[in-house]
Amino acid sequence: MNLAHKLKDPVFKTISEVAHNEGLETYVVGGYVRDILLKRPSKDIDFVCVGSGIELAKAVKKSLGGQYPLSVFKNFGTAMIKTDDLELEFVGARKESYQRDSRKPIVENGTLEDDQNRRDFAINAMAISLNKDSYGELVDPFGGVEDLKEKLIKTPLDPKTTFSDDPLRMMRAIRFASQLKFDIDADTFQGIIDMKDRIKIISQERIIVELNKIILSDEPSYGFKLLFYCGLLKEVFPELVALQGVDSIEDKSHKDNFYHTLQVLDNISQNTDSLWLRWAAIMHDIAKPATKRFNKKVGWTFHGHEDKGARMTPGIFRRLKLPMGESMRYVQKLVKLHLRPIALVKDEITDSAVRRLLFEAGDDIDDLMMLCRADITSKNNNKVKRYLQNFDKVESRMVAVEEKDKVRNFQPVITGQMIMSTFGLKPGKTIGDIKEALKEAVLEGKIRNEFDQAHEYMLELGREHGLNVVKPLR
Ligand code: CTP
């Protein structure tokens, strides 16, 4: 197969020219070749030459006029040139495993064939020649083209060899399957089952990159099911595996919270590409196993799983090496609040309950509602319809209350500073108490969040605390 017509960017001709002059056999290789055949445009291009990738890169830089920056990674024998819109990576063909992100320095140079042998999957081991006499010819020793047609992820060598070279490839197999909607070849999958323990030697930083890519695929449940069936999920995220299973006592059983969670994740993924909102879906019921109780009258309960789940979130994020700042707090907040909108469905709910939720959710209220809608996984269509209509009602109620009371981004009109100067107080507990009471009064609807009413109420609170006004605000 000749793919010269697919190498549209002039950079390929330039590199071919330079390689010829340098006497270096050179190929485009790996993900870029796969993506050409999948018609997925890509900006990262890997070049492999038989010889020094660094020397080739230096010569290419010169022939491109020298204006693009060249980074050399001597230890790994690689070099990168960043042009206006492409990242060109150069590497010498090698005999041992190809790991761009490993800390292992390269040891032995090899031929193109050696290099292809040590790549992760047949679909990632194809090369396109840039050599003058065979320009554009595809070199596909393991049937990568066939695998793309059959939508198959398969290791080029015995899976044991490929996975021992770099156990992260087990995660990568599932990540590619999930992103591309491919199957994993049966022997390759068996290889993962046999070698899942080896994932332990891989750094969590590399694992989480793959897990997040699975989460961001169109139907992440597929990737998670593969992770679960091969046993890798238990290694990397045991809390999620703990959700699996159904208990029955006296004919009363609960739903399988693992499959439910995956359904919620798929549901929300149809509406958002936000990684953290998808993480909130994954985490929303994470504390169900820890809070599960059986009660003769009502059957299975999971009381407080939303609070416990919020408390578990930082620990899980820390261990998984997910960021601990704003994103974690956002996920934690959604986990904590995920049952609240359902509680607002009842007719006799007061405005103050709506105000409290608006206040606590703030700008994340729409994301919370999206999570709640995704959380409806009943198979009974009538039920689903009814629940969704209930949420519509809650939402219009929220809009009305927010319009009236503006609590979503509630900022108190009376500040701590004002309280201190009015009553001549030093910083201390009393200020906090008064501020809290003012906030409560607004949320309860006792006063509106505007100066006159809040000021009047502050004076009243001052009297209750036995305080004298030393400097009136007006
Ligand atoms: N590779 C490998 N083993 C790894 C990582 C990478 O064999 N653990 C090889 C594969 O041939 C892969 C190439 O290096 O195609 C480039 O790796 P990378 O950029 O990580 O992946 P891509 O295949 O380009 O895919 P993506 O851009 O989606 O990550």
TrEMBL record:
Which residue numbers delimit the tRNA nucleotidyltransferase/poly(A) polymerase RNA and SrmB- binding domain?
182-240
Recorded hits in SUPFAM superfamilies, A to Z, give: Nucleotidyltransferase (SSF81301), Poly A polymerase C-terminal region-like (SSF81891)
* Gene Ontology MF terms: ATP binding; metal ion binding; nucleotidyltransferase activity; RNA binding
The cofactors named for this UniProt entry are:
Mg(2+)
UniProt xrefs under InterPro entries: HD/PDEase_dom, HD_domain, NT_sf, PolA_pol_head_dom, PolyA_RNA-bd, tRNA_CCA-adding_enzyme
Domain Poly A polymerase head, chain residue ranges per copy: 26-153
Translocase is among the record's keywords: no
Task: Name the Gene Ontology biological process terms.
Answer: RNA repair; tRNA processing
Give yes or no: UniProt keyword Transferase: yes
Write out the coiled-coil annotation as residue ranges. Answer: none
Pfam families attached here? HD (PF01966), PolyA_pol (PF01743), PolyA_pol_RNAbd (PF12627)
Q: Which residues form the HD domain?
A: 258-343
Arranged from A to Z, the UniProt key words for this protein are:
ATP-binding, Magnesium, Metal-binding, Nucleotide-binding, Nucleotidyltransferase, RNA repair, RNA-binding, Transferase, tRNA processing
What family does the Swiss-Prot or TrEMBL record give for this protein?
Belongs to the tRNA nucleotidyltransferase/poly(A) polymerase family.
Query: What is the protein's given name?
Result: tRNA nucleotidyltransferase
Which organism was this protein described from?
Answer: Roseivirga misakiensis
